[in-house]
Specification:
It is built from five helices and five strands; from the N terminus they run E-E-H-E-E-E-H-H-H-H. Strands 2-1-5-3-4 form a five-stranded mixed sheet, with helices on both faces. Helix 2 runs antiparallel to helix 5. Bound molecules: FE2/S2 (inorganic) cluster (FES) (2 copies).
Length: 164
């Protein structure tokens, strides 16, 4: 093991204290290897594909582009923390399931975290706005049609939940 530091952070509502991590590890490595949260995927490892997208203090971030030590003191949400409970998916997840928004699923965690932030900022988007929002997330399977349909469907479900 190389040089290490201890970091404390919250991931999916659980606080991890004094976690020892190699300083060379990027955040995605830490989530996957130290915490066992392998839902965050690694595609390109240089900020292009979006597969590693997580929410860091509520904003989307490429976990391959920052070091784990830089996440010290932050609050992170990964795909494992999105569902409402063990028995209830998030409406965005339900919409992906119902609209065939995924095939192999490799891009899906990054798509969902990206869209969670987007729909929070823009609860009633146009199709074009959805396409722009996911422009930084590459999908090699779906042709994006199902993903866009799922995002628009999820927006409607979330608005209905809020009564707007
Ligand atoms: S793995 Fe991070 S953007 Fe591709
Ligand atoms: S579902 Fe396979 S890469 Fe998007």
């Amino acid at each position: 093991m190389g040089e290490t530091r201890k970091i404390t952070l919250t991931v999916n509502g659980k606080t991890y204290r004094d976690e020892e991590v190699e300083v060379r590890y990027h955040l995605a490595d830490f989530l996957r290897q130290n915490l066992g949260l392998t839902g965050t995927h690694l595609g390109c490892e240089h900020g292009v594909c979006g597969a590693c997208t997580i929410l860091l203090d509520g904003r989307s971030a490429r976990s391959c582009l920052m070091l784990a030590v830089q996440a010290d003191g932050t609050d992170i949400l990964t795909i494992e923390g999105i569902a409402r409970s063990d028995d209830e998916l998030h409406p965005l997840q339900e919409a992906f399931r119902d609209n065939h928004g995924l095939q192999c699923g490799f891009c899906t965690p990054g798509m969902l975290t990206t869209l969670l932030e987007f729909l929070d900022d823009n609860p009633d988007p146009t199709e074009e706005e959805v396409r722009i929002a996911i422009a930084g997330n590459l999908c090699r399977c779906t042709g994006y049609q199902g993903i866009v349909a799922a995002a628009l469907d999820a927006a409607g479900r979330l608005r209905k939940e809020k009564g707007v």
